[in-house]
Prior knowledge:
Strand content: under 5%
Largest sheet: none
Order of helices and strands: HHHHH
Number of strands: 0
CATH class of the domain at 25-80: Mainly Alpha
Radius of gyration: 15 Å
Amino acid sequence: xxxxxxxxxxxxxxxxxxxxxxxxxxxxxxxxxxxxxxxxxxxxxxxxxxxxxxxxxxxxxxxxxxxxxxxxxxxxxxxxxxxxxxxxx
Length: 89
C-alpha cells in the first residue's frame, strides 16, 4: 500500500481526520521553514547564529517539538530573508 492510499484510509476515521486537520497549518509552516533554510544554503547552526538563539532551538522548531512565539517566528523569517504573514481565515 502506498502512502496516499494509507493516508486516505486513515483519514476516514473522523477523530483522526480532525486531529490531522488541526495540525495542518503547523506542519505547513515547518515545511516552509525547512525548505527556506535549505534553499538559502544555511545549516541550523548558521540560522541560529543569525537569529541569536541555539541550534537546538532551531532543531526543535523544525521537528515540531517547540511552540514558538510570533516574535521568534518573525526573527527566524528575517534570518531566512523572508517575512512572516499571520492571518485568521
